[in-house]
């Protein structure tokens, strides 16, 4: 079990209220400035997660902040990002429907800001590994920073690589996670890296991307191909006003899953070609 005492360089989730909350690294001798006062990390290091701290100067500010251990969802929503990130609900389904867990070997493309990379890195511990690739140097730099801040360097390698055109020196991986603009172009390579029974998941914001990706997954004989969309509603719980919140994120993206098998034709139940039901004579559909 990981320690519940906050140590130097640990990431902490500092919470003032529903809207004001930050993911920060505890560094002795340093502090964190908020418009509700200053948080001294020396007041935090050595304390238990789940403690509180008061902002300084105590006489003029003195606001109470909760110090929580960051959850995987906090990594996603509060880390430095520039690219579109995967939302916690989608990340949850990715983990459950790919089977990624302790010991899994995973390829991810692209890493973007590294939000999903951190989630994956967190779950494959202590003996798995995430090989994450991106074509943009800026994304690689940002993702590496986020992975280091989450203390996941031993479980994640972020490298420059194009999953469509490059050859990665890995095979027999348990799962491939795609979050990129043209996933259908990566299916052939992705399937070649997967072990038999391994899972592939592709996250795409549009149906057009999903259709092309599913078509390629079928071409490469994947099975158990399913696409889902998750819609999460937060419920406001208030005296005489308990109901769904008025504002919500209406769409994140579609998740398409599939599995690799050694797919050969069934010699016992070979389908006869379908009888032509209709013939088309000068544009007129007629029964054959
Ligand atoms: C939407 S972002 C990924 C966000 C990421 N899942 C996260 O949670 O932060 C898409 C990334 O895919 C990368 N990308 C696009 N084509 C790629 C390719 N062929 N190989 C590797 N990465 C690629 C882009 O550079 C971009 O950083």
The CATH homologous superfamily of the largest domain is named Vaccinia Virus protein VP39
The number of helices is 6
Bound ligands, named by name, code or SMILES? S-adenosylmethionine
Strand line-up of the largest beta sheet? 9-8-7-10-11-15-12
Report the major sheet. 7 strands, mixed
CATH class of the largest domain: Alpha Beta
CATH architecture of the largest domain: 3-Layer(aba) Sandwich
Principal-axis shape equals elongated
H and E string: EEEEEEHHEHEHEEHEHEEEEEE
Q: How much of the sequence is in beta strands?
A: 25-35%
Mean pLDDT: 92
3D architecture notes:
It contains 6 helices and 17 strands. It has 288 residues and is α/β, with parallel strands linked by helices. The protein folds into 2 domains: 60 residues, Vcp-like ATPase, Chain A, domain 2; 187 residues, Vaccinia Virus protein VP39 (Rossmann fold). The strands form 5 sheets. A 7-stranded mixed β-sheet has the order 9-8-7-10-11-15-12, sandwiched between helices. A 4-stranded antiparallel β-sheet has the order 2-1-6-5, with helices on one face. It has a two-stranded antiparallel ribbon with strand order 3-4. Helix 4 links the parallel strand 8 and strand 9. Helix 1 packs antiparallel against helix 3. It is elongated. The model has no long low-confidence stretch (mean pLDDT 92). The structure holds S-adenosylmethionine (SAM). S-adenosylmethionine (SAM) binds next to helix 3 and strand 8.
């Amino acid at each position: 079990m990981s320690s519940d005492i906050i140590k130097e360089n640990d990431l902490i989730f500092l919470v003032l209220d529903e809207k004001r909350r930050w993911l920060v690294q505890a560094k002795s001798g340093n502090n964190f400035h908020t418009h509700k006062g200053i948080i001294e990390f020396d007041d935090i290091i050595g304390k238990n997660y789940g403690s509180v701290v008061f902002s300084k100067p105590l006489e003029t500010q003195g606001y109470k902040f909760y110090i929580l251990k960051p959850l995987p969802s906090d990594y996603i929503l509060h880390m430095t990002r520039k690219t579109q990130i995967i939302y916690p609900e989608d990340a949850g389904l990715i983990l459950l429907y790919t089977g990624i867990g302790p010991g899994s070997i995973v390829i991810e493309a692209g890493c973007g800001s590294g939000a999903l990379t951190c989630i994956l890195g967190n779950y494959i511990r202590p003996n798995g590994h995430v090989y994450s690739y991106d074509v943009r140097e800026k994304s690689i730099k940002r993702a590496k920073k986020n992975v280091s801040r989450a203390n996941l360097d031993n479980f994640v390698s972020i490298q420059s690589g194009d999953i469509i055109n490059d050859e990665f020196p890995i095979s027999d991986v348990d799962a491939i996670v795609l979050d990129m603009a043209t996933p259908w172009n990566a299916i052939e390579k992705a399937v070649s890296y997967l072990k038999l029974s391994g899972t592939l998941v592709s996250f795409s914001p549009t149906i057009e991307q999903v259709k092309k990706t599913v078509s390629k997954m079928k071409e490469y004989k994947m099975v158990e191909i399913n696409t889902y969309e998750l819609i999460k509603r937060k419920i406001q719980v208030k005296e005489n006003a308990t109901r769904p919140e008025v504002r919500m994120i209406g769409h994140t993206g579609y998740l398409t899953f599939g599995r690799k098998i050694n797919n050969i034709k069934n010699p016992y139940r070979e389908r006869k070609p379908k009888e032509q039901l209709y013939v088309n004579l000068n544009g007129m559909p007629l029964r054959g």
